[in-house]
Structures are given as structure tokens and as C-alpha cells.
Amino acid sequence: MQNPNERTAWHEQARQLSIDTRALIGGARVELQGSARFDSVNPQDGSIIASLVSASQVDVDAAVASARQAFSQGCWSQLSPHQRSRTLLRLADQIEQHREELALLDSIEMGMPVSTSLPDIAVASGIVRGVAERVGTLSEQLLPSAPDTLALNLRVPHGVVAAITPWNFPLYVALAKVVPALAMGNSVVLKPSELASLSCLRLGDLALAAGIPAGVLNVITGLGGQTGRLLALHEDVDCLSFTGSTATGRLLMQYAGQSNLKALLLECGGKSPQIVLDGLDDLDGLARALVQGFVWNSGQVCVSGTRILVARALYQPLLDRMVGLMEAMRGGDPLQAATQLGPLASEAQLRRVGTMVEAARSRGGRIATGGAPDRDAGLCHYRPTLFTDLPHGDALMQEEVFGPVAGLLAFDTPEQALQLANDSRYGLSATLWTRDFALANRMARQVRGGPVTVNAVASPGPSYAMGSSVEPAGASGFGVEGGTAGLLAYTRAKSLHFRLA
Ligand code: NAD
Which residues does a 6 A CB cutoff place in the pocket of ligand 1? Predict the structure, then answer.
């Protein structure tokens, strides 16, 4: 392709995509047996991209059996960490070589502008490299013991890991689960969101091309209430790694309990605070960052900072600037390189956002800007929306909207800010803005949330390259992601004791 930054070039490339909707099981693309189907719909214009099959019990059994067989044969699980690491580095190469196709698939399926999806694929391949490099540094632990004994602590793979993922960063979130699981020797069955499956299906092809043996990574498509449920209830799945809504996370805990007590990792919803402390002077830059903190990816970001708590002295100047910036924002065609604001992922999501905004308005919430769809921009666009004067206990300040909608509230003391920030059933992440680093350090340690970001916009995932680890709290779920602890989350502890004499 000549120039990927030109609108016509992206549209032309989208037209030329050859889309294979078949599942990947046992190293081959196969037609699923299920009778239920669903469409992948472009949220920018409502066009149907593809029709996919929702995997049935027979299909789920086949995918899990394929993963189990590969695991038991040891073609991957018995390799050394260094051998797996080398293969994962080749997977990173494959992802980078196909980055435009992968970015395009995410953009047409869930509306993320290519200006976001292309760098997102680069970050995603960084996850693969980060994990590949880290897995080679893990060591088994020799325990102090008597001269005639040898004792070791080991970490062993669970076996078959099922990964169920959402649509907001389709490939990125899938890689954040699949790659650590693979690195530790597990076999995987991936079920992406029904709204955005295509980049994950291509990931299956790329894994094979990189040399990951057949059956080690399987990708099946399907509806959550059918295929997802069957996977979560499956007796031969050892670990279920999920990212998605808290409501689905609750169901998965029940399914694990009803079936084989499979291990669970749940990354669920959030309602994260952005706390702005007094004494800041670059208010233009700060306003830009605060808006980006909840409008990026049209607000469909788990760590979106949607409760904006501002020191009273800065409240009005920041409100004025934020409203100005938000009113200047224009949604656009995701396949136009200049577009920063795309549509929501589906008409259902547009309705959900609209309903929550209307309900808050009817409870007396004042809308400083936004509060309506933006039909001129495309089918599922919603205007960036800012509420003021909502009580902190209002549902809009407590429930995840998953759209470009936030509430702004003033506080008088840092203690009050901390109390408000922690007044949430969620505990996913938090952002602090201040020049007082002693105060930032104290508050960052006390605020609920896995990643706490100071003086930068929160990013959605842990940095595998840096090795940071995060774990949600409360209704945001549990289970570590990122760093060495995030790799160990895909293992069980085991110990060996040898009597030598
Ligand atoms: P969702 O819960 O509706 O769906 C997520 C996945 O679960 C999809 O693959 C879906 O098919 C599947 N699913 C749905 N019902 C199921 C069931 N009964 N049994 C098994 N699987 C089922 O979430 P979504 O709407 O796709 O994504 C948005 C949510 O994801 C938001 O709440 C967001 O905060 C959350 N999210 C969290 C993080 C994080 O790291 N904590 C990251 C991204 C998204």
C-alpha cells in the first residue's frame, strides 16, 4: 500500500481484506457446527462485515480437546522457557508485519480510529516481546535443606486456559491474556467478543506461522451467553481468564463453582477517579489530559477516568477549558487518519450510554456539554459529555457508562478527595495530578486501584516491558496482570522433595 495515512488508502485496504470467519481448532481453520449465527457490524455506518457462527457444545468440546491434547503431548508445555520465548518473539514479528491489517480489522469492527488502533497494535506486540523476554528470566527455587535431601519450589502451567475477551481493545486485551498463558506452557482456547472477533482469528494464523504448534492456541467465535458460558462451564478447562463487565464476571464465578472449580482471573469494570490537587498552573495542558482521560477510544476504556475530582480553586477554570475542548472535538470516520474520536462499538452501546445520560439528567444532573448522539459523525457516535453538580452517590458517578461521559466535582481538602475517590464499589485504577510529590506518594498508596498514574493519562494495561504488575479490587475483579506476577498467575505452585541417600 502506498500511503497508509490517507483516507482513501485505508478504505481501499478495507475493501481488499479477505476475511476468513472460520474458527481455528487443532491448527486448522474449520467450519463450526453451531446453528446460531451473528453478524459483525461496522458501527460507523451499520454495514455488515461478516456473518459468524456461534460455537456450540460440540465445537467448544472440540476446541478444548484440541488444547488438552496439545498440552498432554508436551509439544509446547514441555519446551524450555527459552524455546517458548524464541517462538513468542517470532509471533511479535508476525504481528508487526501484519499490523495494518490487524489495526484495520479492529477499526472496522468496533470503530476505533486507525490513529488509535495502529499504535495499539504496536503496544500489543510490545506485550509479546515483554513477556517473551521475561519468561526466560524466571527461575525455579532451590530450598534450603539437609545434605541428603533436595527440595525445589516450581511453578507449573494450569493446563488448558480459556480466555474470554471484550471488544474495546480486541487484539490488545486478547494478547494480554493469551501470551502470558502460552509463555508459561499452557494451551489456550480464546473466545473473543462477538462484536470484534476478526483480529483474534488472524492472531491464530499468525501464531501458527510463528511456530506455535497446532492445538496450542485455538480461537472460537461465539455469543457470550452461549459459547462463553459453555467454555466457562467446561469440566476440562483448568483456568478461565476473563476481561469484561462486572455483570459477566459474577456469572463466571458461578459457572466455575458449578463446574470444576477452575481457577479464575477476572478483569472487570471500573469507575476510576482523576484527582486534581491544588497548585497546578498549566491548566490548558491539564484540561486536555483530563478530557483525554475519559474520551480516548470514545470512553470505552476500562481505566477511563470518569469521576473527575478537582480542588475547588481550579474547578471553574478547568470546567471552562474542558467544555471548550470538548465542544471543539468532532467525531469522524475511523478510517480517516486525522480522526481522533470514533463511534461507540455498537448501537446497543449507544443506547446504553444514552439511557444512562438521560436518567442522570432526569435526576437533576446538569450537562455542561454533550448529552446527545452525534448522527452527523456516523451511526454510533456520541458527543463527549460532562456532568456537573451531580452528588457523588448518583448512579452516573457510581456506575460504569463505557462511553465518553464523566462527572466533575469540587473538593476542599486532599482528605476529602481521597474519601470520594475510594467511595466506589470498583477499584480498577486512579490518576493524580499534582506538583506535591510527597502528597502524591501518600495519596497514591491509599487510593484504591491497581495502576495509579501520577501526572499522566492512565493507559489501559500494565506495562509488560517495564514489568509492572497490577491487580483490581472490589467489583473490578481479581488476578494479577503484568510483570513476573502476571506470568505466575497462569501457573500453580508445586514443590519437589528428593531423598538423595
Ligand atoms: P461483556 O462482559 O459483555 O463481554 C465480555 C466477554 O464476555 C465477551 O467475549 C462476551 O461474549 C463474553 N460473555 C458475555 N456473557 C457471557 C456469559 N454469560 N458467559 C460467558 N461469557 C460471556 O463486556 P464487554 O461489553 O465486551 O466489554 C466491556 C466491559 O469490559 C466493561 O465493563 C469494561 O470495563 C470491561 N473491561 C475491563 C478491562 C480490565 O482490564 N479490567 C479491560 C477492558 C474492558
Answer: 164-168, 173, 191, 193-194, 224-225, 228-229, 232, 243-245, 248, 251, 267-270, 302, 400, 402, 428, 472, 476
CATH 3.40.605.10 fits 11-268+478-498, yes or no: yes
Is residue 302 annotated as part of the catalytic site, yes or no? yes
Cα–Cα distance measured from residue 339 to residue 333, given in angstroms and rounded to the nearest whole number? 6
Confidence of residue 462 (pLDDT cuts 50, 70, 90): low
Residues of the chain with CATH 3.40.605.10: 11-268+478-498
State the distance from the centre of ligand 1 to the C-alpha of 245, rounded, in angstroms: 4
pTM of the model: 0.96
Does 267 participate in catalysis according to the annotation? yes
- Measured in Å, residue 496 CA sits from the centre of ligand 1 at 38
Q: Which three cell numbers mark 179? A: 501470551
Task: Give nearest CA residue, ligand 1 atom 22.
Answer: 224
Q: How far is the CA of 193 from the centre of ligand 1 (A)?
A: 7
Mean pLDDT of 239-267: 98
Active-site residue (options: 194, 267, 400, 481): 267
CA atoms within 13 A on the CB side of 112: 30
Torsion, CA 16, CA 169, CA 334, CA 23, rounded to 10: 20
d(CA 489, CA 151): 22
For residue 352, the CA-to-ligand 1 centroid distance in Å is: 15
C-alpha cell at 134: 521475561
Which residues, at least 6 apart from 369, have a Cβ–Cβ distance to it below 8 Å? Answer: 323, 326, 327, 383, 384, 385, 386
CATH number of the structural domain 273-467: 3.40.309.10
Q: Worst-scoring range by mean pLDDT, 8-22, 122-136, 253-267, 463-477?
A: 463-477
Atom of ligand 1 nearest to the CA of 244: 30
Q: Kindly report, as residue ranges, where domains of CATH 3.40.309.10 are found in the chain.
A: 273-467
Atom of ligand 1 nearest to the CA of 249: 2
Q: Which of 239, 268, 302, 380 is catalytic?
A: 302
> pLDDT at residue 47 above 60?
yes
Spatial CA neighbour of 222 closest among 3, 365, 35:
35
The pLDDT of residue 139:
86
187-210 per-position pLDDT tens digit = 999 999 999 999 999 999 999 999
* HSE value, Cβ hemisphere, 13 Å, CA-based, for 375: 1
